[in-house]
Amino acid sequence: MSFFNSINVSASGLTAERLRMDLISENIANANVTRTASGTPYRRKVAVFRAQESNTFEQILSLATGSKSTGNGVEIASIIEDQSPFKKEYNPNHPDADADGYVSLPNVEIVNEMINLISASRAYEANITSVNTTKAMAMKALEIGK
């Protein structure tokens, strides 16, 4: 694995975790939205990650010869809406209340979102550390040649 490949893998992780943090922020911001353009409460959004496919000659050759292959990073497969049921709250004075006086609230749990945000933040920091370590290794390798 070259230095640049290592940095590219970490960069893909940074991009994926940034998108994950953006979605979590959107979920938190819309935690009380009872009516969207479609007329339903806001649905929580979740990023689905997958490993990037092998697409370079070196990686395909490694797979064909049975050599150890390194990872290619991560990519966002899709962004899905959580289909868990909406929360119900009795509030007959709310404009979006149904005939029984219940309001459907988004399926966003703030505590869970904050836990996910901390997890995404830690993964982001780990990828930054990986980039910095790879950069330091490259600088040390250049110093050997002096």
Task: Describe the structure concisely.
With 146 residues, the chain is an alpha+beta fold. Helix content is 49%, strand content 16%. It has 3 helices and 4 strands, in the order αβαβββα.
Topology at a glance:
Elements lengths: L2 H27 L15 E7 L5 H9 L8 E8 L5 E4 L11 E4 L4 H35 L2
Antiparallel strand pairs: 1-2, 3-4
Helix pairs in contact: 1-3
Features:
146 residues; single chain; alpha+beta
Please, could you describe this protein's structure?
This protein has about 150 residues and is α+β, with helices and mostly antiparallel strands. Helices cover about 50% and strands about 15% of the residues. It is built from three helices and four strands, in the order αβαβββα. The strands form two sheets. It has a two-stranded antiparallel ribbon. The protein is elongated. The mean pLDDT is about 90.
Structural class: alpha+beta
* Portion in helices: 40-55%
What is the arithmetic mean of pLDDT? Answer: 89
Backbone CA Rg? 22 Å
How many DSSP H or I helices?
A: 3
Low-confidence stretches: none
What is the distance, rounded to the nearest whole angstrom, between the alpha carbons of the first and last residues?
Answer: 24 Å
Characterize the biggest β-sheet.
Answer: 2 strands, antiparallel
Q: Which sequence of strands runs across the widest sheet?
A: 1-2
Give the H and E element order. Answer: HEHEEEH
Overall body shape: elongated
Q: Strand share of the residues?
A: 15-25%
